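User: Sequence recovery, please. Input:
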């Protein structure tokens, strides 16, 4: 599988809601770097898997709609619109993820996303 397809398979796995399906795409020493001010980073597949459970259960019907994808060497950059339901509110966030592929798995995920947009959409209802 080419690096572009590996990255897209990883992003599509989120729509399953299964932490194991998502985590099977990452290396044991996986680095999840969240550049957004609201995000928190982690290192290691086991740590990531634990965090995925809470993330996927909190954000229902999570889906990445992929826009432009650029693949060069071991790097894949994917622009996305992430949609999900958070406490019965539909949320839509745009971002770009840059992934480094190593031995057919994601070794580093650097995620740039719009935290202000999330806050505006998830705030108290009027």
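Assistant: Recovered sequence (126 residues):
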């Amino acid at each position: 599988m080419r690096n572009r397809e590996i990255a897209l398979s990883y992003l599509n796995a989120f729509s399953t809601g299964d932490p194991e399906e998502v985590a099977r795409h990452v290396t044991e020493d996986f680095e999840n770097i969240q550049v957004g001010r609201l995000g928190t980073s982690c290192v290691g597949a086991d740590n990531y898997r634990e965090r995925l459970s809470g993330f996927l259960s909190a954000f229902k019907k999570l889906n990445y709609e992929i826009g432009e994808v650029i693949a060069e060497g071991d790097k894949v950059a994917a622009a996305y619109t992430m949609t999900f339901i958070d406490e019965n509110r539909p949320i839509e966030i745009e971002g770009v993820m840059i992934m480094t592929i190593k031995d057919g798995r994601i070794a580093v995920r650097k995620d740039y996303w719009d935290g202000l947009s999330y806050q505006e959409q998830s705030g108290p209802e009027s």
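The domain at 3-122 is CATH 3.10.450.50 (Nuclear Transport Factor 2; Chain: A,).
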